[in-house]
Amino acid sequence: MKRHEIRSRTFKSAGYDPTCSVMEIEHATGRVEQFLGVPAKTYQTFMMSNEKEAYFTASIKNSFFKVTVG
């Protein structure tokens, strides 16, 4: 999955696969997580947010099944 660089202290990059509704986040620590069943609108809102950490915590972190892939 292609990820796009993010300017954030918490995240390095994020990507989205619309064919299977999977969002992938690379944390600043290097850990990579996939969140399953994420609507495209949620990913788009995250990417456009000026407060990515807050949006991630409120709308993604505990709302979708997470798989750590790296």
Automatic annotation (TrEMBL):
Residues 8-64 form the KTSC domain. It comes from Siccibacter turicensis. InterPro entries: KTSC_dom. This is KTSC domain-containing protein. It comes from the Bacteria. It holds the Pfam family KTSC.
